[in-house]
Amino acid sequence: MSANKSITERIFQAIGFELLAILICTPLLAWIMDKPMLEMGVVTLVIAALALAWNVVFNGLFDRLLKRFAIAHNAWVRVVHALLFEGGLVALGVPLIAWWLNISLWQAFLLDIGVLLFFLPYTYVYHWVYDVVRERVVMRQTCVQ
């Protein structure tokens, strides 16, 4: 895994992460909460925008720490990555969800925990697949040059 990603690539990676998540979560949450698809779509988009910004900032910092301390990007590091990323997103998102849906912080927290059960494995798998595909593309470009 290479930490040498440009800001453009980090934004591309984060947008891909969020778009796929929106496509999965909007209909699922509308069904679970018995809310109109449009209402849950707006909530999902707002949270996705927050998550997008968090994704770019967090992954940049995380990759720099790995590089600075020469930490191998193995399965355990990916678990720590997913836990820290989602923990930060919970702290940022719960108050927003509570306000937007006009529910208590506790209800928003419980909703977020349900969503977290989806996003923990999703975050792990998405970034793992992205890194594997990226490494192959980089290696192919290196061989061509």
UniProtKB/TrEMBL annotation:
Give the stretches traversing the membrane: 12-32, 38-58, 79-101, 107-130
Pfam families, per database record: BTP
Q: From what superkingdom does this record's organism come?
A: Bacteria
Q: Which UniProt keywords apply?
A: Membrane, Transmembrane, Transmembrane helix
Q: Does the keyword Membrane apply?
A: yes
Q: Is this entry keyworded Transmembrane helix?
A: yes
Q: Which residues form the Chlorhexidine efflux transporter domain?
A: 5-68, 75-136
Q: Which NCBIfam families match?
A: PACE_efflu_PCE, PACE_transport
- Listed name of the protein: Chlorhexidine efflux transporter domain-containing protein
